Structure formats: structure tokens, C-alpha cells
Amino acid sequence: MDRPETERVCAIRENVADLIGANRFRTWFGETTHFQLEGQQLDVLVANDFVHKWIVTNYMPELVEAARRVIGADPAITVRVLDAQPALTGNRAGSPTAMQSNGSPAGSPATRREREPRPVLRGELETFVVGPSNELAYSVTAALVRNPGQAFKHLILHGGCGLGKTHLLQAVCNGISRTHPELVWHFVSGEVFTNEFIAAFRTATLDQFRARYRNIDLLVIDDIHFLSNKKATQEEFLHTYNAIDACGKMVVLSSDRHPRSMSTLSEPLVNRLVAAMVVEIGPPDYSIRREILRRKAAVMQCDLPDMALDFLAQRVTRNIRELEGALQKLVALASLTREPLTLDRVRRAVEEYVPAARAPEPAQIVRQCAQHFGVTVDALNSSSRDRTVTLARGVAIFLLRRHTRLSYPEIGRLLGDKRHSTAIMAARRIQDLLDRDQSVTWHTAGGARDAPLRCLIDELEQRLLQ
Fold this sequence. Notes:
Elements: H1 5-20, H2 22-29, E1 34-38, E2 41-46, H3 49-58, H4 60-71, E3 76-81, E4 88-90, H5 135-146, E5 154-158, H6 165-179, E6 185-189, H7 190-202, H8 206-214, E7 218-222, H9 231-246, E8 250-255, H10 267-273, E9 277-280, H11 286-299, H12 306-315, H13 320-336, H14 343-349, H15 362-373, H16 377-381, H17 387-403, H18 408-414, H19 420-435, E10 439-444, E11 447-452, H20 453-465
Helix pairs in contact: 1-2, 1-4, 5-6, 7-8, 11-12, 11-13, 12-13, 15-17, 17-19, 18-19
């Protein structure tokens, strides 16, 4: 007799870990990757496109072999990105609702339906990193979980992609499950709501659709802006919203824009939405980005140097998804190679995630270098061979070559009509020190200072590229 599917899935995971090694398994098949097995069909659900591509490219033979050992036959394997959570209904995330024979839960205040096995909602209030850009959104979400429907019944979180809206919506469902297990919630994306409505309309099952969405205590819809330009779906959602509100129940939504900025929504729907508690989530600041990286790296059990995490937090600024993608790539680099992570290697590895910065002006580079080393621009342009002036001039030449299109003759002319050969030699000396990961020493009015040249140049670049 075959073992239960859950046992076979565990056995497949153990075999994959045995074939590729524990560290690589934790990186690519750990907390964020789910296995589902039905007969000889194995589905591997991954978090993003990067992980999908990496697994398909590097680990398909091991997946086939691991599944074959457990199934006893050649498996059919599909690797796909879990880019949207399926509709989840229940009173406790991750556990089926107790059902009566007629399909309704015993003692429930609202109609429920039995759930098929699917990934558990991942968002939790305890794992959400709070900072100035999202503090209000977190606070109102936590208040709703503590006292559902008391201070407000309806909440809309809006902001750009990858800022944590989905995390908080999922945290509402998980939190309600723990604090108020008697309440029934339904979590769905705007796309799924639309598709289910269209299917119900075409199959004349609108009554069942409406019962499923209206006879609940909490409706949570992610990406409500998906309803834009869909008049029939908007009208149905408005009726659903009104029906839930009339019963004193709750609606929590997310959107990429404020409701008033969605010109393709009907006026009655916009007027209904703006009456809710509308809260914006802004881009994460450095402190949020750095803490997210620290926590994610700890979960992945990867000991990355602080320098690497600092660089990611400083440079990958657009959203949290890109930040996590950059970390995944860096973890792969660290686990699959034996070379130490230097700043240059980190920069090259994640350059696709770093937004292109406006190139600094040549004069700005010269001024910044002079200021950093405590000398004057005139001193850099002079023929002085003072150790500090020479170092500052060499760093300026190095940065001028890296961040401008100036030729060596043009750089020489900029710095007091130096020969182009002088500029070439200065740049080569700086590059040689970088290659050997050397420290440098210079003198200021406050005394002697020293620092690793790589860190010094990185600090200057951060200022220049801000």
C-alpha cells in the first residue's frame, strides 16, 4: 500500500536534500518552496521567476531521481511560480474546517466550503518589518485583528508593487484565525474574483457565487485595481461590498493606487471605497530594507558578511520583492562558489536590481574627493607630491574613469594639465591596491586616518550617486 501523500512528499524532499546537499536544499527548496504530489505528478511551487529558472536549469535531474526513488516510476514534474495565492476560505489558516455532511460547518455563523489542500498564507504580523513608511498601515491592521469591526469595518491599503500590502492582508486572515476562530474569512486576488464571477455568469451559478462571497465575516481581496475597466465585475463587487456592509461585516482590500486615482473604476464604487479607512504604504527606508535582509538571511541560514547586506540595503531601494530577489541571487553566489564575497563581486552579482543612477559631474567627483581627504581642489590640480594629496588625486582619477566618459588626456587636463600617462599610472595604482584589498592612510587636521580602500571608494560612490 502506498504511503500517504504527505509522507511521500517528505520523502521526496529528503531525497532532494541528499542529492544536492543540505545547504543548497535550504537555499532553493526551503521555506518558500512547496511540493504537491498526486499520483505520479509532482508540482514544485516556487516564490519567484529567479528561483524557478535556477531550479529548472540546475536541479531537474535530481528532482526526477528523488521522485523516482519514492514513487517507483518515472514522475511527471512541473515547476511553476506561485505568483498569486489561490482563493482560501476557512476559519484557521492551514487547517481544514470541520464540515457537516451537507457541506456546512457545525455551529458556524456563516456558510463555509471545504478547502482543497493548498499553500498556507505566509504573511504574519510578527514577521512584518515596521518603519516610518508603513507604521500606520501596520497599526491599523493590528487593531483590526485585535478588535474586528470595532474602530472601523473596512480598510484599503494602497502603494506600489512589492511594499508589503499582500503580507499585511494575509496577516489579517492569519491573525483573525487565532484571535477570533469563530469568524469566517475569504482571501482572494482581484483576478480570481473576476474569473470566478465570469465563470459563474456563464454557467448560470451566480447564486452560489454570491453566497460564497457574501455569507462571510471578512472578505479580503488583494489587487482590487484588477477590476479596472471591467464594468460588470465592478458592479457585482459593489453589490457584494454593500451586502457585507449591511450585515456589519468587514472588507479589507489592497490596491496599487488610492481609489480616487483609479479613473477606470465607476463613480459609485469609488465613492464607496473612499468611505473606508484608506492608508498608504510607502517605499521602505534603509532601516526597513536592512532588517528585512537580516531576517531573510537568517531564515535561509546563510551567513553573508555585513558588507554585502549593507550594500543591498543601500542600493536596492525600489521594493521588497526586488530586495529579496537580490538576496536570493547573492545567497546562490555564496553557496555555489568557494570564493570570498568582495564588494566588487556583490556589485556585479546584483547589478540588475540596482537602478541606474545619474552619472556625477566630473567637477563634483573632484570636489567630493578633495573634501573627503581634507585637501583643496587647488592642491589636487597642483604638482604636489604630498602623500595625502597624491592619494586623493589618484582616487579622483580612478572615479573619473569609472563614472564619466572622460579619456585619460581629458582627465589630465581637468586636474591641472597633467600628462595622460600620469593619469593612467595613478588609476592603475588605485586598482592594484583594490585588487590586493589594501588599506590606505592619510593625514587631516584631526590627525592620521586609515581605512580599507575598497570601503573608502564605496563610501564616496554612495555620496556621488545619491
